[in-house]
Amino acid sequence: MKKITAGRDNLGEFAPDFAHYNDDVLFGEVWANPVLAPHERSLITISALMAQGLFPQLESHFKMGKENGVTKDEIIALITQLAFYTGWPKAWSAFNLAKEIWKED
């Protein structure tokens, strides 16, 4: 997985400790733990973000998920499954984001 610098890029000067935790701990250590593959971590993270309705973060994680090998068919199946547990409107919103990310697939 490529090194994440979003924390430092966006908050480095304003909240350097938070940027460190984001880039080095969450995306450095936690995402690097070999117990779960990046593909699995992406599916888990996407599920959690969709459940909470955090669509700006969901868009970023859709992109990361695609980089981690999440396919169009997998994301469609995941959003459909989650629609029944998280709510139909969240699924509509997630599908609108997903179809932009996976439009070329």
From TrEMBL:
The residue ranges of the Carboxymuconolactone decarboxylase-like domain are 16-100
InterPro entries per UniProt: 4CMD/NDH-1_regulator, AhpD-like, CMD-like
GO MF assignments: peroxiredoxin activity
Question: What superkingdom does the record give?
Answer: Bacteria
One Pfam family, please name it. Answer: CMD
Q: What is this protein called?
A: Carboxymuconolactone decarboxylase-like domain-containing protein
